[in-house]
Amino acid sequence: MTSNPPIGMALIGCGNIGTLGHAPAFASAVGVSLLAVSDLNPSRAENVSAITGAATRSLEEILADPAIEAVDVAVPTEEHERVSSQALSAGKHVLVEKPITTSLEGAERLVVQAAQENLTLMVGHVRRFDPRYLAIAAELAAGSVGTPRYMRRAERQWLPFSGDAWSWSGPGGGVLMDVGVHVADLVRWLLGEPTTVYATTRHIRPEAREWGDHVFVTFGLGESVTAVGEASWAHPRSFATFYGSLEIVGTDGILNLRDAEGPLLIIGPDGVEHPRFGPLLSTIPAAFSAQLEHFASVIAGEIEPHQTASDAARSLQACLAAAESVETGSPVSLTGPI
Amino acid sequence: MKRVAIVGFDHLHAIAYLDVFSRHPAVELVGICDDGMNQALASERATSEGLVFSADLSAYPEWAVDGIYVGTTPARHREIVELAAARGVHVMCDKPLATTLQDADAILEAVREAGVGLCVPFRPVFQEPIRLAIERLRSGEFGDVQAIYAVKYGRRPTTSPVGMNAEWFLDPDLAGFGGFGDIGSHAVDAMCRIVDSRPAQVYARLGSPVPGAIDDLGTAHLEFANGVHGVLSAGWVNPSASPRWLEVRFEVLTTTHTFVVSAPYREFEVVTNEHRHLVPWFRDDLVAHVDDFAAVMSGNPPTVSGLDGRTNLAVLLAAYRSADTGEPVAVPA
């Protein structure tokens, strides 16, 4: 935690994750101060401005403002590289939503630019700041289940966006790129580097035209370790509180996180409700705050980043390999650093 | 009442069927043939139950039986079933039906020619929660199945609590498969029934705790002929402190609904200062197997046919080949 004055920041992109995940985190995060918010859609920016008290500004105004030292980029994935690159050129540190970009070449360009400008570039793989996964990582490190040999991760929901949202058909859209990258990143964080990737997808809801809305992906990590992921936007809306589960089989035991078995049930005359604990199914609010605090501490030079941007690019690489496997019908090998 | 014998006391299920046959109203258990590693136990149990015992696996035709349960190691199923068929005896053959497709085809041909019945006692389809899920899915009120994820974890069979020697499970020449095949075959049968199709292609990865040892955990992508995609994780990985011998989970996504079957039986929980376990309070599956076998002996079609057993074997063989080659493998028709 930084003892320096708070770092002036702006939130660029007030869509779903910007509004529900990033914006509220500024209120509780220590070491950052949200000075401005921006969105191409003025009503979205005004909405977040009303919640956070930060001014509504254009991207150009934000990049020209010397009081703003860093930006939180939560625009659609296709725009990650362009907006992040502009911000780096303007001398701003960048926290960009996952996946880092839509291409490995784009990711590499950003990494090189940040290094040249001597600025912090961090990717919002927010699971790495979520207490439940941190506790699981600590449990694995303590060795209570032995050496992990198998992992199963499911992230499933009913995507509440209309069919014209970029998530369904735009570049960088699809459940594999948007949610699957979390799965890939969790596998890499907890188990290690995949060497092969195999995936199948299905188009289940009518909104899923270009990209699949349900994916099964298997990551092979060498000969003896396997991770299987499921990511879905096609589960029924009321599946909500069953969103995620994680199982790890080790040589000495099994670790099981079952989000479905939430600790609160409300039973009424017409059914059973599993109430939600935050605005997002996938992540608790504290994880976004912890991510911002970490970002501020890295900028202040107090700590090394939990994950480098190059490392985050490898999670994108694993997803792109899964997409290639879907296209070719064959497993795809992942070899060497990108 | 149909007269039955147990031929082979290698399979862990043999001792369970001994108990169920003994009290099932539709059958009369007359004897046990066994020449394997559990011969002493089989002979002792036969004596205590007042049954005939023979160490010759071909002795039972003299006992005038209508049917036999085959509980030998799978590599011997073909010779046992061929003899039974030639003697006009109906067969309930434990899984896997065989260890090669050639043997499975020979088994199907033998029973077809002889006109005897053959059933394969896969478990899940006889378990109440899964039967109910399949029944509800087939009603048409829950959309079309799109995706299925299945988990089936057992403990290593060598930790059998019933005093049987099950070392052969760890010998691929005798068992045909390791943990994925042993445990996963049941789940594959259930998945086919839930999806109402058969896998056309399989991609699998199998794990071993020690290089070269038999597999104990596998994960397989199953692409069904009707377009449904699925994943199965199965093996001998259930830790001994797990509250159940078997962990079973089927998660089914349809166009409108999600079905989650999280246990094979209805159960209650017991927690003490030493351990926690779950006690199933209604185990109808073994009795249902014997109901089914009795129906087969009366000339009726089985719930799980020999052809289903052959399809199941073809899926397992494709999964093991995929794990060897690293490529998806088509399942032969």
Describe the structure.
The complex is a heterodimer of chains A (338) and B (333). Chain A has 11 helices and 15 strands. With 338 residues, chain A is α/β, with parallel strands linked by helices. In chain A, helix 4 packs parallel to helix 5 and helix 9 (180-190) crosses helix 11 (309-328). Chain A is globular, with a radius of gyration of 20 Å. Chain A starts with 6 loop residues before the first strand and ends in a 5-residue tail after the last strand. In chain B, 53% of the residues are buried. In chain B, strand 5, helix 4 (101-114) and strand 6 form a beta-alpha-beta unit. Chain B has 333 residues and is of the alpha/beta class. Chain B folds into 2 domains: 2-121 and 287-303, 3-Layer(aba) Sandwich (Rossmann fold); 124-284 and 314-330, Dihydrodipicolinate Reductase, domain 2 (2-Layer Sandwich), CATH 3.30.360. The interface between A and B is medium-sized, with 34 and 35 residues.
How much helical structure, as a percent, in the residues of chain B? 25-40%
For the secondary structure, the number of strands of chain B is 15
Classify the beta-strand content of chain A into a percent band. Answer: 15-25%
Distance between the termini of chain B: 37 Å
One letter per element, helices H and strands E, the order of chain A comes to: EHEHEHEHEHEHEHHHEEEEEEEHHE
- Largest sheet, strands/sense/barrel of chain B: 7 strands, mixed
Number of domains of chain B: 2
User: What radius of gyration of chain B results from the CA coordinates?
Assistant: 19 Å
Strand arrangement in the largest pleated sheet of chain B: 12-11-7-10-9-8-15
| Shape field of chain A | globular
Number of domains of chain A: 2
Average pLDDT for all residues of chain B? 93
Distance between the termini of chain A: 32 Å
Classified in CATH, the superfamily of the largest domain in chain B is Dihydrodipicolinate Reductase, domain 2
How many helices of chain A in DSSP terms? 11
- What is the CATH class name of the largest domain in chain A? Alpha Beta
